[in-house]
Amino acid sequence: MDVAVLELLKLANDIWKARKCPARLRTYTVVATPNNTGFCECMKGDTMLVVTNEDMLKQLGKNPEQWENFYYSIVGIMVATAAFDITDRHDANALFTPDGDIALIDLSASMGQKAPLDLVLGMNPIYFPLRLKKIHREYRKLSGDEPISKKLGW
User: For residue 123, which phi and psi values (nearest 5 degrees)?
Assistant: First the structure.
């Protein structure tokens, strides 16, 4: 399932780029092998489960490119999780990278395949943890009178 979903994510990136939409998704290589197993490319970063808001703010700092990566990846993730029915979204299935991106990992519950807890809890189909609102408020505070990124503005 991960291979198919990642191909869709790559296609979404191509479409957004062609239309000059800054949203993007961090993709990586996955090779499927028999019996529902496979290999995936290792990426640097930590799951959102272990990364605190303070860790993210420290890394993002006042670097415009980091903030742009962060926001554009959030937009991409929100659209992709809704469009491709990517469920089982929780902080252990998202990776915060050294570039400031948030990447989706463990895509086995996608395109109609539901994780057991998704069936019971009826989780939100769009990945946007509330803690990201706090990060946005801090972006505004860190910016002061001028936004850190001219592309992002407020």
Answer: -65, 155
pLDDT at 90: 72
Provide the b/e sequence for 26-55 (b: ≥16 CB within 10 Å): bbeebeeeeeeeeebeeeebebbeebeeee
- This prediction has a pTM of 0.83
Burial class (CB in 10 A: 0-12, 13-18, 19+), 69: buried
pLDDT confidence bin for 5, thresholds 50/70/90? confident
Query: Count of CB atoms within 10 A of residue 100's CB?
Result: 21
Q: How far is CA 39 from the centre of its chain?
A: 20
**CA–CA separation, 49 vs 39, rounded Å?**
22
Cβ neighbours for 52, distance < 8 A, ≥ 6 positions apart: none
